[in-house]
Amino acid sequence: MSTNSKEAILAAARQIAQAHGYGGLNFRDLAAAVGIKAASIYHHFPSKADLAAAVARRYWEDTAVELEAMAAHAPDATAALRRYPQAFRRALENDNRLCLCSFMSAEVDDLPDIVRAEVRAFADVNVAWLAKGLAVAGIVAPDKAEARARAIFAAISGAQLMARSRADITLYDTLVDSYRAAGLLPA
Amino acid sequence: MSTNSKEAILAAARQIAQAHGYGGLNFRDLAAAVGIKAASIYHHFPSKADLAAAVARRYWEDTAVELEAMAAHAPDATAALRRYPQAFRRALENDNRLCLCSFMSAEVDDLPDIVRAEVRAFADVNVAWLAKGLAVAGIVAPDKAEARARAIFAAISGAQLMARSRADITLYDTLVDSYRAAGLLPA
DNA sequence: TATATCCTACCTAACGTTTGGTAGGTGAAT
DNA sequence: ATTCACCTACCAAACGTTAGGTAGGATATA
Question: How far is residue A90's CA from residue A105's CA, in Å, rounded to a whole number?
Fold first, then answer.
């Protein structure tokens, strides 16, 4: 069960970090969630920094796959863009959790360098996907796609954060609707 | 110097919490920043929860005063609204810090109830100010002012968070510009 | 005026708990 | 016979918090 345990640690650590952050992630609670002892985690990850970096890397890798699938299944680029908020909605659906990298962005001053790099990679993945979609859909001029993509990413992150603070997923939905009404997101 | 020490604790705790959050705020570092011993903080605040609640309350009180001053000094409601992003910019100017309540919103699962209540009050103050300005300026219909106000607050929070994660205040400015270009903020 | 009492604002020292991390061992599979 | 996956049993440091004490000022009483 070596591979399974490693994957189970990764999955459980992600859940914990999405609710309590890097600082709130600890080996004893994590081990208990997996069903092993705290010291055993060191068999799979040499340190907390390495664990968190692996979790964050896996997080953006999974997101990249998910976004590509969304683009592939949508009839066109505009339709794919319209579904983008759903990706962030899932964290809230999952017991009012936050995007892992939003939480870690807040904690950036206390993050090991290797973790910080993965957190930034997550934003890069999202912005690149959005920029490509915006350009292909012809919603903004190609030279302004990246700026708009960053704005959408930041706004969606903020909406998720605000909805989490109220534990109110319908607030997230109304915020997204407001972004659409205001013209930030394609209607 | 009793009053001064209490105020000094409040001010130092705010700075620390804006950089490290509620979880990252600890009595020893805080006491050192003030120039006293950790145990002495208990002379002024009965517990960490009470301290943090006092910090958060003072934070939204100060913000309310600042926003009212902004409205009073601006020539009209639209001009006041245009200056709103400046209020959030100041945290980034202050050593790349985050809005205290954005940080604590991420930590909401681990916050004592009395702290959580103050965090929500901060959002209420901002949304109420924005909604009033939007209605008076006639930018949106009065019955849609609060929804738009929430969207602006969430988007600005997200922009600040993203800029902090990159330690790049110019990113905040370009995000705000993008919000204006997209129509979310009054141009 | 002198003295006793109390309060404020801090201190040192320690409490029990939790933290990330280490050393070394056990049992099963290869 | 060795490696793998996990264990027990620790450790030092840091955490919020408490106990008890001290220096100095204010107030009240004699």
Answer: 19
